[in-house]
Sequence to fold (188 residues):
Amino acid sequence: MTKATILGRVLAAASPLLACVMAAAQSVAPAPVATKPAEEARPASALAPLSWLEGCWRGNVTNHEFREHWLPLRGDLLVGISHTVADGKTLGYEYLRIENRADGAYYVAAPPGAAETAMKLEKTTAEGAITTFVFANPKLDFPRQLSYRREIDGWLYATLDGKVNGADRQVIYPMRRVDCESGDPIKK
Fold:
């Protein structure tokens, strides 16, 4: 008997068995797919209107480069850091957060070696695509007020207002949204 004959007999004997297995497999209902129970709908965070801050921002005025980097809104908290450099040397940095408290949303700055300062979100204004968020603390001299103004084409203007030695003072930090790795501008 040749190898071809033996192989033919084996296949012929196996064919009815394979046909039965295939038919049985097709007639069995598919196993149900496990699904997660529906999660309860969570209310939107009061900080959601500020979630656009997520990402990296860079500006340069009078040879001072300043950056802010904000993490995504998570756990009802925005976490960020600011860093200012001139001539290759760090002039300052602060840890930042925007958080909800019992009486509203607060911007909190924590410079190294100094006490935290907190400013309450006092108002939000919108004119077309431009939105301004104003945080204030009347107990502070400078800054007494911080405004984050979201402009079109990826611009952010952080404006500090208050008094220095009894005189009014305003500092504006124009920043552009940038790619966190390359530093290239992003229009978002």
